[in-house]
Amino acid sequence: MLKYIWYACAALLLWSGRAHAQTVTAYSFLQLPTHARLQALGGNNVSEHGRDVNYAFINPALVNDSLSHSASAGYLFYLAGTGQVTTAYAHTFPRAGTLVFGLRHVNYGTLEGYDNTGMPVGTFRSADTELLVGKVMQSGVFRFAINTKAVLSNLAGYRSTALLTDLGGAFVHPNQRFQAGLAFRNLGAIVSDYTPSSRNTLPFDVQLGATFKPEHMPARFSVTATRLARPGNIFQDPAGGSEPSALKKGLTHLTVGAEILLSRQITVLTGFNALRQYELRNGFSWGVSMHIRHFTLVLSNAAYQPGTGAWALTLSTNTKALWKVKNL
After folding, report:
1. Sequence ranges of the domains in the chain
2. Residues 157-202: pLDDT tens digits?
3. Of the candidates 23, 37, 176, 310, which lies 20 to 30 Å from 220 by C-alpha distance?
4. What is the pLDDT of residue 2?
5. Distance (Å, rounded) from C-alpha 164 to C-alpha 145?
6. Residue 44 burial by CB count (10 A; 0-12/13-18/19+): exposed, middle or buried?
7. What does each C-alpha distance from 58 to 2, 36, 134, 218, 236 come to in angstroms?
8. Buried (b) or exposed (e) across 1-40, using 16+ Cβ within 10 A?
9. For a pLDDT cut of 90, what percent of the chain falls above it?
10. Mapping DSSP to helix (H, G, I), strand (E, B) and coil, where does residue 252 land?
11. CATH number of 2-231+249-327: 3.30.70.2860, 2.60.40.10, 2.40.160.40, 3.40.50.880?
């Protein structure tokens, strides 16, 4: 079984490299962090198993039965007044097992339109939407999952739709506090492109990571390697400059996150994204997680343009626990 999984992984890597070499990548909003915890940890993490239902957007295998009835809603205050709304819910059904439902909507607001001569032609609204249903399965210490996603994009009246899937796997050590994850993200096809002449492709990505907690240390650490299907692919300054070394290109694939466990109720989060550090000169992010009665509130900040930080807020709860409290 594992042999065939590795064969499939190798085929996906070869296919993705050819696709990115020939076309332009669309739906870049799918690369944004979906919730405040992920943003605080650097924006990438495929190994924090059983921690947050929103990880289903990144690696669906990170959702386990303990997250059943978990509901979450959040908002990312993105660039220039734009924003991202994210909601997620997990439920374990008697026959279907654990399913995850998610919605992500990015609103770009109202844009001014101009013709080829520079004359205004009116205003347009633009937005991107992702709808997700995920299925989680378990075999011993391994978990496997698949997401089925629909993407709807409207950019100033130009519309595009795509049907995508994510494949995720996770390993949870039975005795040690160690977890590992692997995710193949955004496989699928564009159903209708923005124009008949468009030649867009999907933001396919392969991510591999690990999360571990030292036995006698109140901290948890995560290391994630991203863009494994496009090694060394980084932004090059059009003004010139020296060619980045192979070591620097390799390091830009890494994201490191740490959680300082101050108490059962409060956790301080921090992360470093090497690619953002290279391209935007600010790869650091931070946040705080607070558990108050039956709610978990996470607030984080990260920079997506030089000199400006973007805030994210996520509120989560367990609806089953809330229902029991209500009926007391």
Report:
1. 2-231+249-327
2. 889 999 999 999 999 999 999 999 999 999 999 999 988 888 888 9
3. 310
4. 38
5. 14
6. buried
7. 22, 13, 11, 26, 27
8. eeeeeeeeeeebbeebeeebeeeebbbebbebbbbbbbbb
9. 60
10. coil
11. 2.40.160.40
- Rounded-to-integer distance, Cα 131 and Cα 39, Å: 20
> Cβ distance 104 to 75 under 8 Å?
no
- The 10s digit of each residue's pLDDT in 55-114 is 999 999 999 888 999 999 999 998 777 899 999 999 999 888 899 999 999 998 877 777
Residue 37 pLDDT > 50, yes or no? Answer: yes
Query: Which residue's entry shows tokens 């997620």?
Result: 88
Q: Do the beta carbons of residue 26 and residue 19 sit within 8 Å? A: no
Closest residue by Cα to residue 163 from 139, 130, 136, 135: 130
